[in-house]
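FAQ: What does the model actually see?

It sees only this:
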Amino acid sequence: MTKSVVVKSTVGLHAALAAKVVQAASKYNVDINLIYNDKTIDVKSILGLMSLAIPAGENVVIEASGDQASQAIDDIATILSK
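And it is asked to produce this:
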């Protein structure tokens, strides 16, 4: 299952936002990744997310599999699109 979302934070995917994403992802028993510029990173890895250096306004794809995949994707998409 995948969902495309635009990173709306005016400073992009910064440390505090990445921490919120990791916290949200960690609540779910799913395999969940973020895809940006042909790079795929485990959303539960804050260092991985920070390494992407995603600026504001960029489109990313959230990909998840597992019983709670839909809930996890929606939760993370909400955080990224605020």
